[in-house]
Amino acid sequence: MMDNKAVVLGANYYIGLSTIRCLGMHGVHVAAVDYGTEGTYGFHSKYLSEMLVGPHYKKDPEGLLTFLIDYAKKQSSPPVLIPTADPYVEFMDEHLDELRKFYLIPQTEQGLYMKMMDKGALHKLATEHGVRVPETVAADDPEFMGKVREIIKFPCLVKPVDSPAFVSKFRQKLFKVYDEQELKEKVKQAKDEDLEVIIQRIIPGFDDHMYTFDAYLNQDSKVTHWVTCQKLRQFPINYGASVYTQQKYIPELYDIGAKFLEGAKYKGFAEMELKKDAETGEYYLIEVNVRITNLNSLLFKTGINFPYITYRELIGDPLDSKAVKEDTGYTFWYAYEDLLAVREYIKTGQLRPAAILQSYFKPKAYAIWDAKDPKPAFAFFKKLFGLVTNKFTNKSSA
Hints:
By secondary structure, this protein is an alpha/beta fold. It has helices at residues 14-24, 61-73, 86-94, 96-99, 112-117, 119-128, 144-152, 163-170, 180-192, 251-263, 296-301, 306-314, 335-347, 353-359, 375-397; strands at 6-9, 30-34, 50-53, 80-83, 136-138, 156-160, 175-177, 197-201, 210-217, 223-235, 241-247, 268-276, 283-289, 322-323, 331-333, 364-366. The chain starts with 5 loop residues before the first strand and ends with a helix.
């Protein structure tokens, strides 16, 4: 019997839901934490043992810290703490030393999570370890416009250093700009919100040139489990999150990813996103996710259960090493946002309907639906119906 509980931070999105399932199906006592119950469909999973409503990570971080510590103190064994959203990672990193007194957490170096999440710090870290990154200029460089003209060229990307804060404010991951005037406007827009940004070269290639290296590194910072994937569609299109992604074995990504993560002394789960240059064939590191990701249900289908791998290692009973070195055929599908993406791909002429239709004939790893655990999907559809109804009602009354 496993005495250690698993505490999952975040249950109002499908990443938290898949994490709950990956742990609960193995008999782990899963307690999920969120700041409310409205629309929190992960709370409806049959694999959830305990529902915890605590303070908001942004509005009351000290309250959340006290809440988590008080919970851990009541347990017979220290729980394993697993974040499923970037703001929870930021919270954990800030309070890592304190949380580690009461919880089992793979990362031991305070600040390393943020180095991986911070675009500027990641660029420096990657360069130190010989990993290609897109040419980048800091917006606070007094010569940035000249460097953009000479090195970056237009169009280019204005990307945040702190992604969660940027997304929270602008509801998008980045700005794509086409000339100097637009670049000045977007940089000012970010600065007015006190958000630091960088300007980055666009690596040529369609969305299917985006790949991921998903890996777990043990307490010796050695890769023990890994799998690679290829994105097919994203939402928002071109610069968004995965909505249709296939598992695809790309051995070169292990060579790049393992060297970088091990060299950085990283511990725990990480997902490196890389883009293959359509002109040179070289891979460029775009970002690193340091929490369970969108693709978790796909990774599980291929035989790599990262939440459970994390849990087992931290309680001192690690699973045998494993890598997926073949194409399994499985594809991750977040149907709701994929349908929105498909509309835009067709509208902009980037994909043809026939090609999209053909892509659907693959075995699926669904973001939300699970025949063995259907209640969360029903709760999600109820939430979605409410959002659509409210939008229609507001339009009618306007």
